[in-house]
Specification:
single chain; about 260 residues; Rossmann fold; six-stranded mixed beta sheet; globular
């Protein structure tokens, strides 16, 4: 269920960005972007290519300094990060076990346990180059969970995965949030799938076009204008899914 604003207190806030601007080579990449993320909340950033989504994540993580604005991260909070892409030299011999060990898990049993949690235990000893796209995304998610994060930051977590695999990954992300109580900050292009798997949506095109619950954003004129026919198609799918409360994920693939 979406998080009600009235329940949020200052102590709940894990991350807050205020009036973030970023300019490079006389080009405005981000303009006056502000949002907060609270404990246990899933916030998804959507927007077209070049909208500044990954750039905004990098600022939130402290990997990139804004031209102006303020970033607050709750002291002593732990962050797990899942990147958009992983480039591995196909000639480089690297097993999943070794990859997780390089990320900081010198305890094989913890690595194996994390792979079990994300549904990828069978690839523990497999070469990283031989596993499927969906299995790779699960391995990257296990790696992001290594530090038992308070905040999980996911950049296109279902990239390169088929539709059924996307549904399963969004279900997994929701389950991880529910079981661990961590917050999730996520970037996605998958409009109708991700809308059913988030508490709030921030629609970005170098500035915030609109934000709010999936229901509110789906019908916002700025959202419809930004995504055009794709937004109209998504709106029909989302309305259909919301009208079938009794169906399971196999019957309603857009509803994790």
């Amino acid at each position: 269920m979406p998080l009600k604003e009235s329940t949020v207190t200052a102590s709940d806030i894990l991350l807050e960005l205020s009036d973030i601007c970023l300019a490079r080579d006389r080009q405005q990449l981000l303009r006056q972007v502000s949002f907060t993320l609270s404990c246990g909340e899933i916030l998804t950033i959507i927007g077209p290519n070049g909208a500044g989504k990954t750039t905004l994540l990098r600022i939130a993580l402290g990997l990139l300094a804004p031209s102006s604005g303020q970033v607050y991260r709750r002291p002593a909070s732990s962050i797990g990060y899942m990147p958009q892409r992983l480039h591995i030299d196909p000639a480089f011999p690297l097993t999943v076990k070794r990859f997780l060990a390089m990320a900081g898990s010198q305890q094989p049993e913890k690595a194996r346990s994390l792979l079990e949690e994300v549904g990828a235990a069978k690839v523990f000893n497999s070469p990283l180059q031989t596993i499927s796209g969906g299995e790779l995304q699960r391995v990257l998610l296990a790696r992001a969970l290594m530090r038992d994060p308070d905040l999980l930051v996911l950049d296109e977590p279902v990239q390169g995965v088929d539709v059924q695999g996307q549904v399963e990954l969004y279900q997994l992300i929701t389950r991880i949030r529910n079981e661990r109580g961590c917050a999730v900050l996520m970037v996605s292009h998958d409009l109708h799938l991700v809308m059913a798997a988030t508490d709030r949506v921030l629609c970005l095109n170098r500035h915030i076009c609109c934000s709010g619950t999936p229901e509110n954003v789906s019908s916002d004129p700025a959202y419809l204008e930004l995504f055009g026919p794709l937004a109209v198609e998504h709106l029909a799918i989302y309305a259909h899914d919301k009208g079938h409360h009794q169906c399971d994920s196999s019957q309603c693939p857009g509803r994790p």
